[in-house]
Amino acid sequence: MEIRSAKKPWGEQLRTVCGSLTVCFAVLVAGTGLARGEDAGSYQTAAVDDANSVLSSDDWPVRSVTGSAIDISWPVVETLDPSYGEPVTFPTRNPFTLTHWLLGIEIGEPHVAQARLFVPESATAEAPVPAVVLMHGAGGVLPAREIAYARQLMASGIAAIVVDSFGSRSEFTGNLYAARIFRTTEMMMVADAYAALDYLSVVEGVDESRVALMGFSYGGITSMIAAQAQVAEVAMADEDRRFVAHIAYYGPCIARFADRRTTGAPVLFLMGGRDALVDPERCEDVAEDLRAGGSPVRTVFYEDAYHQWDGALVGPRRIGYNIAPCDMRIGPDGVVWDGRTGLPMTGPITRLAILMSCTTTEGFLVGRDDEVRHQSNAEVARVLESVFNHPGRDPWSDHAGSVVTETPIR
User: Fold this and answer.
1) Domains along the chain with CATH numbers
2) pTM value?
3) HSE-up of 315 (CA within 13 Å, CB side)?
């Protein structure tokens, strides 16, 4: 089987991913603490029968909401309070993969998540407000993106919590882009997202039954994965708390689940036509899986948009590495395996091998586009206003499954 690899010698790739061969070796040796997974023997990844029971959006109870209706106006960020929110911490988990999470195997000591909390002054125990959990991309928390959205949401009467999955794991201590996504896995960020959902349940003035998840790029993957019932069930254990909506900004569609059941919450995909990090065809495959699993899904394709159209970088500018060719499959038992080679991701060593074989060095283009941001803001507002004001309803009614192509007006 042919393996697509980056255009660098093996040793140079190791230096790129880990910073140095010495650091890379140390990372791999440290990772062998997960040897129970590394030597777990053969894994069975039989597909789940499509006849599996799934949640339908019709199964979600439609209930009324007390208090003022949410109306998101997206005020100009420069006119808002420049606060970075209140720094908060809360316990989270550190599972390398879903299998490790299921088995209770984690990396290191019990982990504490770091975040910034934004709560409107109007929020009270008598009139709680909805909330949004924001998950950053591979570049970490950005003032022009996660913090800006949090301020805008707070100004619209919505609480927001910006989770820093890299900062809490010291991923900016000399680590490069590729090293961060190697060491902080998708499932670790999903664990942080659900930990934030759990934390919001004890924040006075926040309605724990109306919390949405919004992720950007690597965080967009988090938002997609968190919609899977298989993940939510292990994340919340005996709790029935779930996100009421999942929004993925330009998230690479690299993960597919054999168990296609979802939580039933609506999912919104936002993609750019000039973004090499996102493959529209593969995203539509993931969207179809989510629909089959019980979630209404809408995919919006901005034909002229680059990656990170809502950031501060003026483009087009080429950055990073490209993980779009990667193909992660999650079996019914939670085992992650490479869909291209069949190699199971059982720990740091196999994750490194898989990512090095599928990640390319071409990178991708980023570029701010205020018109596209304006259009994507409208899409997000529609979803959030629907799930916050009319919980249980389909935000898109009869065209929830449509693929929309938008050409920005210049």
Assistant:
1) 10-41+73-396 (3.40.50.1820)
2) 0.83
3) 23
